[in-house]
From TrEMBL:
Keywords: Copper, Membrane, Metal-binding, Transmembrane, Transmembrane helix. Its main location: other. Gene3D superfamilies: Cupredoxins - blue copper proteins, Immunoglobulins. It is found in: Cell envelope. The keyword Membrane applies. Residues 254-304 are annotated as: Disordered. GO terms for molecular function: copper ion binding; cytochrome-c oxidase activity. CDD domains: ba3_CcO_II_C. This is Cytochrome c oxidase subunit II. One of its GO terms (cellular component) is membrane. Residues 64-166 form the Cytochrome oxidase subunit II copper A binding domain. It comes from Natrialba hulunbeirensis JCM 10989.
């Protein structure tokens, strides 16, 4: 059979194109490591993210320069916001949605993933220099889609810490009752940290030095005598490094809706409290006697 030369050339050109197309598609799907969200991770329940990775979205250290960031996207924000990581680090982001489809895209980079409810998107990113990146959502997710944004701060090593502070105290106490202010400090680094927890209330300042192991949480309770503060509103502030938490406690003559029953309960509580005090008594007394020294230490530290 005789095939015309031009027809032969066209047949060869068509073959080359077909092989070329197949090659580019194969390279795009295998060579570049682009995968579908949900290929790598188990599914989660989006409406109640009780999965411990996402119930408290956060950054945690997992290796010398390696970090994991657990991020949730919801109408119309990202959590945590801002996300803070150190320079020269490798960060693996795990991102999921609490409601509808969003996306997690670092502006000006090729870091970009769809965020699908029920699925966990995973991306590993290397950060070099300190820089701020905007995070945007580029999947239409509702009326405020255009306002859905966040930040990733890549900060210098010496400005980076992974300490979380959460302090709690009662809103209202009766004169004469103790006020317990509890500071919960979490260290999300791998190495232990040494720091000072300081409570300011009224004219009083009390401090306690703590050492917290990597990945651990420390609870420090300061007990303040409400009678010394007097009736009224008293603002308190707990400080750990650059982190602060503050609120107001009101000392009242007598708590409202105090039935006879309640009073009886209160009394029994007081008894148990007294028992607790004896247990933790050693620490408590030491704290109070140490106060002045620690204070001057702390102010000395500030001067540096
Ligand atoms: Cu979230 Cu658009």
């Amino acid at each position: 059979m005789n095939i015309h030369t031009y027809e032969k050339l066209w047949l060869i050109a068509a073959m080359v194109l077909i092989v070329g197309f197949i090659a580019t598609i194969t390279y795009g799907s295998v060579g570049l490591g682009i995968t579908m969200v949900g290929d790598q991770q188990d599914t989660v329940e989006p409406t109640e993210l009780d999965d411990e990775r996402f119930s408290d979205p956060r950054v945690a250290q997992v290796g010398e320069n390696e970090y994991e960031a657990y991020v949730t996207a919801q109408m119309f924000s990202f959590q945590p916001d801002p996300i803070e990581v150190p320079e020269d680090s490798e960060v693996t982001f795990y991102v999921t949605s609490r409601d509808v489809i969003h996306s997690f895209s670092l502006v000006g980079t090729n870091v970009n993933t769809m965020v699908i409810p029920g699925e966990v998107a995973e991306m590993t990113v290397e950060f070099d220099e300190p820089q701020d990146y905007g995070v945007v959502c580029n999947e239409y997710c509702g009326p405020n889609h255009h306002n859905m944004e966040g930040m990733v701060h890549v900060v210098p090593e010496d400005e980076f810490d992974l300490t979380e502070l959460d302090a709690e105290a009662p809103d209202e106490v009766e004169t004469g009752d103790d006020i317990d202010v509890t500071a919960t400090v979490e260290n999300r680094l791998l190495d232990p940290i040494e720091t000072t927890v300081t409570l300011e209330i009224g004219n009083e300042t009390v401090s306690e030095d703590v050492t917290i192991d990597g990945g651990e949480t420390d609870e420090t309770t300061f007990t303040v005598d409400s009678a010394q503060l007097g009736e009224g509103d008293h603002e308190w502030t707990v400080t750990v490094d650059e982190h602060t938490d503050s609120w107001t406690v009101t000392v009242v003559d007598e708590l409202e809706d105090g039935d006879a029953d309640d009073d009886a309960d209160d009394e029994s509580n007081e008894n148990t409290d007294a028992g607790d005090d004896t247990d933790g008594g050693e620490n408590g007394t030491e704290d109070e006697t140490d106060t002045d020294e620690t204070e001057s230490d702390a102010s000395g530290g500030d001067d540096e």
